[in-house]
Amino acid sequence: YTCLHENLFHYLCEDNGGAVTLPAARGDDAWKVYFNENPEEIVDEHFHCLSTKYLCAGVPAVMSTLLANINAYYAHTTASSAVSASDRFAASNFGKEKFVKLLDQLHNSLRIDLSMYRNNFPASSAEKLMDLKSTFLFENCYELYNREFQLSAATMWSLFAVDMKYALEEHEQHRLCKSSAYMNLHFKVKWLHTNYVKDVPPYCGAVPEYPAWFEPFVMQWLNENDDVSLDFPQLKTDYSPQFQKSSEHALFSNSVVDVFTQLTQCFDVVSKLECPDPEIWKRYMKRFAKTIVKVLVAYADIVKKEFPEHLKEEKVACILMNNIQQLRVQLEKMFEAMGGTKLERDAADILNDLQQTLNNTLDELASMFAISLETRITASVKELGDLLQKVGGGGVPGQPQPPAHHEADEVLRPLMDILDGSLTMYAESCEKTVLKRLLKELWKIVMKILEKTVVLPPMTDKTHLSAEKSLSPKQCAVLDAALDTIKLYFHAGGNGLKKTFLEKSPELQSLRYALSLYTQTTDTLIRTFVTSQQNQVVAANDLKWVIQSGMFRPFIEVNLIGPHLADKKRKFATNMVSATEQMDLFELHVCIRDYCFAREDRLVGVAIMRLSDIAEQKFDNQGSCACWLPLGTRIKMDETGWTILRILSQRHSDEVAREFVKLKSEMRSEAPIGTPGPS
């Protein structure tokens, strides 16, 4: 019988030119049919016959399907039977011993033929390549046969790896294909290794070498992806009044979605490579991080460059700021997708730096937006100042003032009219993070304008002081109450800025400090000035003096400066100082002047001598001490000194204040060219 069916099979193959006549049947039961109707009735032992012709085109696929179905048949268990597939197979009349022998022979033949796979399965034949894939048919009979046939995969991979490595090295030099073709090949090689090689000795547990073959081509693909990702066509439509937001409830536009769609697609492709080499994966992530930086920085630069053109369209400006904030949000998500805290340090540092760059960009945009409102805010604050001047009631500096909330509400009206409408629109148009940044910038501007416009007199520069307006203690109390109202407005019941931020902001502290100085007595202000201004004179070497009249008549003027001197002589005489006063509250203001008849004496130089420093000197027998005083052209002050000076400049009826302001604001003026004098 066996001889008969083998001869029939041989005859049918020879009659077909040496090739196996494969069935034309299709469908789930097609594997049961291997010959035409008449031979099928005679031939029954198909697998043995097919194994003799397994190198014929299409036969490996048929054999693999046949084995899979035999295995599935015997591996099927029922509720009443938990017998293994192998035992069920052995108990059948299939002929296990003969079948096992057949598989052993086939396996040995496969090993030999795979070692010459270049000849037996040439790449020029699509059919033979499919046959090569089907030679891994032994995975279909593991349960049935209870043995592993993996040596064929290991043998083929070792030979295939050599060919692939050398071929890709050549392609690296000449780039004969598009980067997408190399990426597709990478995925196919990865599939082959994952399914048939990864668990086979000696490759089991080892880092495979195939990612290194493809690394140059993956990098090439990432480089090319930069150019694609840098195209922002949607960004242009963001500036149109009719531009499309990304969704009904979103406050950012489609251009942000487009940017991250492209970046996400790129990352998904690289991720699906499932690179098993950790070092190569780190390099991929570092390179991709640079792509993200290039794309997002380019986007942010475009927005920053064109942002000033859209400041008048406040809603568009808000959307553009929202876009930058959304870049930060999506960047954080991308960071997490790339590994988060487990991401390689170099890549993580690159993305963290980028996050800070975007943060700074958002701050710049918020600042530009707030500055664009400065003119309107200044006008309203000036109107506020005019209303404040109309508040009646004087009061004495240094004395507590009654509450002034009613007057404060009236005074604030011009400013609140602007803020109320604007902040409502910003709250509707801005992301919460953007809104808070914008509020911070507006808060700073409002506080600064209030200080420079209302609290302190206007100054074009620090060489001349003007004092057109003077605030009474009552007006200071009204303004202080107004600050509390503004602070509550910016806090917005918890939806705006935090109270701690508002209280600790340098701008509010500076304004309140100026107000606190405003209500202090002249003596207290002078005391503060003397104790805070430690280095008032910067020595000027080689001071040249121009003599216009031909005569140089220098004299020294000494002014005693300090508290409680209103009823005492303050020029030349220093013996009027009470011994009970603190020496560090007083100083000698020394001026070198050139005497001029019938006009004001000209200042040659100025020096400061602190009484506490004199007290520390060793006096001679006559009660005098000698020291060098550096001469300067003017007094040097910090902001506190200038603030005190500007406040005192408004006290026109206070002789001590007027005298103090004149001394501290006076500076040497260079005379026209004349006869050179001593230096």
Automatic annotation (TrEMBL):
Could you tell me the keywords of this UniProt record? Answer: Metal-binding, Repeat, Zinc, Zinc-finger
The cross-references to InterPro entries, in alphabetical order and at most eight, read: C2_domain_sf, MUN_dom, Munc13_1, Munc13_dom-2, Unc-13
In what residue span(s) does the MHD2 domain sit? 409-529
GO biological process, alphabetically ordered: dense core granule priming; presynaptic dense core vesicle exocytosis; synaptic transmission, glutamatergic; synaptic vesicle docking; synaptic vesicle priming
Q: Which GO terms describe its cellular component?
A: neuromuscular junction; presynaptic active zone cytoplasmic component; presynaptic membrane; synaptic vesicle membrane; terminal bouton
Q: Which PROSITE patterns match?
A: MHD1, MHD2
Please report the name of this protein according to its UniProt entry. Answer: MHD1 domain-containing protein
Taxonomy of origin reads: Eukaryota, Metazoa, Ecdysozoa, Arthropoda, Hexapoda
